Amino acid sequence: MKFSDSDLLQLRSFFESPRVLISSHVRPDPDAIGSVLALREAVLQSGGTPVCIMEDACPTRCKVLFGANEILVARDVNTETRFEDVIIVDSGNRERIGDVEK
User: Fold this and answer.
1) Which residues face 22 on adjacent strands?
2) If you average pLDDT over residues 15-37, what whole number do you get?
3) pLDDT at 30
4) Is the pTM of this model over 0.70?
5) Cβ pair 25, 96 in contact under 8 A
6) Hey, where are the domains in the chain?
7) In whole angstroms, how far apart are CA 10 and each of 4, 14, 99?
8) Which top CATH class is 11-101?
9) pLDDT for res 88
């Protein structure tokens, strides 16, 4: 897939958001964790501030991945926290992200 320059500019402005929530489905597998961490890096490199929150903890086998230690668990996060933008990956519907939706 090839993105147009205008698509890339819109995407970059989204990634530059002061607070971007990035999440995926409950019981994340390596694919979900890799997607979350790749987007985290894209947001960081674009000047934004990513916050990765998952319903469940990062699987042990994924903790070696760069940035995995930055993934928070929903139950440990203040539910009053608000985000300017949200990116959900590898999930077919909102219910599949668990308490992160709150």
Assistant:
1) 52, 87
2) 91
3) 94
4) yes
5) yes
6) 11-101
7) 10, 6, 29
8) alpha beta
9) 92
